[in-house]
Model the fold of this input.
Amino acid sequence: MTATRPLPVPDEQSGPFWAAAAHHVLKVARCARCDVLSLPPDLVCPHCGSTDPKFTFTRISGDGAIRSWTVVRQAFLPGFDEDVPFMLVDVELAAQPGLRMIGRLLDGVEAGVGIGDAVVAGFEDLTPEVAVPAFRLAR
Amino acid sequence: MSGRFAASNQVAIVGYAQSQIRRNAGRALGSLAVDTARDAIRDAGLTVDQIDGFVSSSLLPSAAGRGVEDGVNIVSSNWLAQHLGATPRYAAGFDGIGQLPGSVVLGVNAVASGAADYVLVHRALHNPKGRYHGNPMREARGAQQWVAPQGFFGPLAMIALPYNEYLQRFGARRESMHGVVVEARKNGARIPWSFWHDRPLSAAEYLAAPTLFDPVCRYDCDIPVDGVAAFVLTSAERAKDLPHRPVYIAGYASAAPSRARLPLHWPLDDILDGGAAMARRLWAHAGIVAEDVDLPQVYDGFSPFVWFWLEVLGLCPVGEAHRFVANGGIDSDRDGSIPVLSGGGALGNGRMHGVPQMLECYLQLSQRAGDRQRTAAQLGLACHSSPHYGGAVVYSAEPY
Done:
């Protein structure tokens, strides 16, 4: 049997993110004090400095634009050997200017991509309970 | 408040030692560090009992999640002082990024403040057995949960994203990077202690290499090595009584923390904006402008850093570094060029984390570079890490 990919271990802060992802829903932490989204959530809100940001996880569309990409041809983590080559995209999410997320582009490495290309959220089911956010081209 | 360093040119490098740089030294890193430290102290005309300060950074830059073992895969200042039998008044480790400039800053400040009279700065790098960045992680906890399950992991992915962002934004081609790598290897091939001694790289060899993380190929990455370097710092006043021509520390700067991001996510704007801000503080700290520096040594642990440093330092316009290099702008053998990799850098020596840059500044400005001596060099700059993450130190042949 081949090695399995690393699975996320939800913690006190990230639990709602992974619970939503399992249902193919993207939720991002919103600070209760300043209302600004953070990915990942931090101990201190990076926007208003609150040490008690009481993050709530807010559903966002997952629409975004590609800011960069790379094709991974050599895996440094277990479980990816059969996946290489695969494409990772650095996406600026439409939900908030400057909010960036990195994920796989599920269209494959032959998909022609360019800066600014529109993507939508997609999900990879790693186990029956765990899904990892990713992207697909919107076109 | 003036940005000028109050102790500018009051502390100097007075001696050094550099071990052979090898894939595997064939002996313990700690032993190599002790021998190299003794050589540096002797080179400075001093004895171990006179060394009352030790500074370093001991980070092992592997993503494999290995445990660290002092003396085995890292060497801390305390370990080194203990095994030299020294009794320092001051021993400190720098735990930020830009490890070598950060360590030099600790040492300079210790001498300038009187915390120590003679400070040994060292850096010991180890190439562990097994895959350097291969990580057996099965569970992604903490910060890694946001990226590792997606397959975004390790330094090659980290640099590939801003590198491609640069190519796309400025219409550059990855093939143009051969000018950086061939230049580094040309200069490294002339350096006897380099892992790449007598082994230059041709443009054809560079262009034939497959990509690993597009657009990065193996030759864009420095090679992990065993190697140790050590330098001795003291005051400009005490330096007058020592055998070698002192090289003065004129100023320094470290990058301010950039905004919170996903682990290893370095958008191009963070690099260029953060680097430019760091450069402004650097010039103010040393009391100079970019054009004054005749020996800038930029960091090249990944080749795109060379383009980024050229631009943030103002040595060429933003977005133009790829053309500047292609037109011979960094050719160390060409009159009028800016020899930013004359010391071979990391790509031409091995993964020595800022040492080749600092060593080239020291050797050239102290007139100790032998047949590689460049007569004109007066003001050097040694950079380390990414411009938005690391730091740089200005060195001067004469106090000013």
Observations:
- Chain A is about 5% helix and 35% strand.
- Chain A has two domains: 10-59, 61-139.
- The longest strand of chain A covers residues 64-72.
- The beta strands of chain A are 7-8, 27-30, 37-38, 56-59, 64-72, 86-93, 100-104, 118-125, 131-137.
